[in-house]
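*** Backbone structure tokens ***
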Amino acid sequence: MVTFLITSVLVLGLIAIAIYFWQKPTRRTETAELPPPPVTSLFDNQNPQLIEAPEEQFVEIDPAFEEQPESEALPATQDNAEREAKIATAREFIESWKQSPDRTSTATMLHLAADTDDAETYNNAAELALNSWQDGRLPDVSAAELHNLLNSEYWLLSSHTRSSGAGFILKRTLSRARRELESVNDPTS
């Protein structure tokens, strides 16, 4: 009986191995490649006669640009004028802030400087606030408050401004401010 059991297990094992190898796909040495993309050009489906426009069409198009109202033709100029006005307002406030810095005016100054979306203006304001705090002219502002204020207002700047060259200098200034302000808060220093 034991012989019959062992023999049947071996036969079933051989059958299982035979089925495994029989169903196993054969390996191909060649790789399946996709067909190359169809070659198209910019003017593939167009009539060559339509590509070449007569000069009269260009002459007719030019006066259409001149007839546009100035407000529609130059929207970026209005944005620049608004930005320049914000920068001028921030610089005026910074000058008045220098006379008597306090907690509220410091927050306002940094907010106005960040709202200009000008890294140089915000950098100037941040350095002035840090220097005034270090000189003891901002006794009602703690190191943690100034650190949080500098960082939170920084995020008002657009990503384009933050990644610009002036934005890099601003990041260095904020990094220096962070180190100096955290060293005051750190009891191990």
Notes: Confidence is low (pLDDT under 50) at residues 57-62, 64-74.
